[in-house]
Amino acid sequence: MTKIREDDTIAAISTPLGAGGIGIVRMSGPLALDILKKLFSPSAHHCRFKSHTLYHGIIRNPEQDQIVDEALCVFMKAPKTYTREDIVEIQCHAGYSILRQILELCIRHGARLAEPGEFTKRAFLNGRIDLIQAEAVLDLTSAQASGLSHMGARAVKGELSKRIRSIRKGLVGCLAALEVAIDYPEEDHEILDQADIKRILEKEVIEPLQTLIRAFDRSKIHRFGAGVLLVGRPNAGKSSLLNALSCEDKAIVTEIPGTTRDIVEARIEIGGACITLLDTAGIRHEPDPIEAMGIGKIRQLAPTANLFLWLLDISKDFNDSDEAVLDMIKSFDHIPVIIVFNKVDKIEIGHKALARRLLEKITAHHEKLVDTPYCLVSAKRHSGLDQLQKSICEILLGTEARIPDVAPNLRQKEILEKTLILSHQALQGLIGGLSPEIPAMDIRQALDHLSETTGEFVTEDVLEQIFSRFCLGK
């Protein structure tokens, strides 16, 4: 990433490109207002550009005295801005040609094109936010489901940072007490006795660290999403179920078995998590060459799936093709399964009795599926889908399915794990009666690691890696 200079003014398009009602060009830096004055003709005469006030007018190309677009512009004076620098936002129509012209005018009159994430990086470097909050901004801008946006919003407000600072405070208190013992070994009194140091390490450092690390594990589906593979023999209703769950006609549905030959995807939200449903080719006992290629793709995808939905036509008996599906499921025993008895609309009564009989045949072939959850649905009539979604939620997110209030990302979690190991070592050293110099050294290293989460101690390489994942304009 280019080294930031104090006299730089950066500019970028801050809204996604494409058809839309409004597009925004943003500038940050000391020349932002001067550039705006060259390009913007406000409707109100004698405009003084009061901070945080929206003005209507026209953006012009001053060299050609040509109107570019009607716009609303706002000037925000430092330090009460996102970057703690002067900021200008030009709100215009969202056509790419208009946005590009305005951005080029800004650059021609003194700004330079911002690098990915540079606005947020300046907010971090200027002390408005810490690194945890900066990474949470990335979560908010990339969130595809409510779970990640919920955690991101709380982290942007500083709630995760607050918990990290509390852990840091506990470590600092323990280190201060140990250093007193090191510097004044002959003194009878200490700021904290050994029992207090052990208690603080255990209750105010180790336990909160463990809680945050567990929160990461609970948040993985919310953060990274999950893949759910729909498998079954031809014409079991996989495509119909995909369409019913996604409320879209994603897959072709016909009465002809084997319509789906390739993978069809649909994204839905369940329990605040982004779930990718993958409709697959029907698995036959003796597939034709094209079907065999489709089944090959299933085997390629299966290792990455978080869950199988195995569809069976409840109106038909268990047959060789169902057994072929079961053989495939057996080869991926670590992946959980929900058995979906579809087409209950074809059976007037006795759905549960039929399902139990089919389950007996399934478990006779594979006893590990004895306690596998099952659902009765009609993809055609959209019945039983609520219970199916509840079962998916329970398997992927747990029975509580509660979105963590705060959770670290992968980078932060790895740092917290290093901090936890060193904190444990310090505690065990104290319990074992080691000289205070040794646990003090562990705590100093733990503090160094913890500082990497908030950015108090972080290398330029790490910053570049983090902010390069941002979009332009953020």
Brief sketch in words of this structure:
The protein is of the alpha/beta class.
Order of helices and strands: EEHEEEEHEHHHHHEHEEHEHEHEHHHH
Shape verdict: flat
Question: Which blocks of ≥5 consecutive residues have pLDDT under 50?
Answer: none
Radius of gyration using CA atoms only: 30 Å
Q: What would CATH call the architecture of the largest domain? A: 3-Layer(aba) Sandwich
Largest sheet: spatial strand order = 3-4-5-6-2-1-7
> What structural class results from the helix and strand content?
alpha/beta
**What is the terminal-to-terminal distance?**
15 Å
**Top CATH class of the largest domain:** Alpha Beta
Mean pLDDT: 87
Largest sheet: 7 strands, mixed
Write the CATH fold name of the largest domain. Answer: Rossmann fold
Overall tally of structural domains: 3
Can you say what the CATH homologous superfamily of the largest domain is? P-loop containing nucleotide triphosphate hydrolases
| Total helical elements | 15
Please provide the count of β strands.
Answer: 13
Report the sheet-strand fraction: 15-25%
Instruction: Give the fraction of residues assigned to helices.
Output: 40-55%
Description of the structure:
The protein has 3 domains: 10-130, Probable tRNA modification gtpase trme, domain 1 (Gyrase A, domain 2, 2-Layer Sandwich), CATH 3.30.1360; 152-221 and 409-455, tRNA modification GTPase MnmE domain 2 (Four Helix Bundle (Hemerythrin (Met), subunit A)), CATH 1.20.120.430; 225-397, 3-Layer(aba) Sandwich (Rossmann fold), CATH 3.40.50.300. 46% of the residues lie in helices and 16% in strands. The protein contains 15 helices and 13 strands. The protein has helices at residues 32-39, 96-108, 118-125, 131-142, 146-156, 159-183, 194-224, 238-246, 289-301, 320-330, 351-365, 385-397, 410-431, 437-454, 460-467, and strands at 10-13, 23-28, 40-42, 53-61, 66-76, 87-92, 112-113, 226-232, 264-270, 273-279, 307-313, 337-342, 374-376. It has a 7-stranded mixed β-sheet, covered by helices on one side. The protein has a 6-stranded mixed β-sheet with strand order 9-10-8-11-12-13, with helices on both faces. Strand 11 (307-313), helix 10 and strand 12 (337-342) form a beta-alpha-beta unit. Helix 6 (159-183) runs antiparallel to helix 7 (194-224) and helix 13 (410-431) packs antiparallel against helix 14 (437-454). It is flat. The two termini are 15 Å apart. The mean pLDDT is 87.
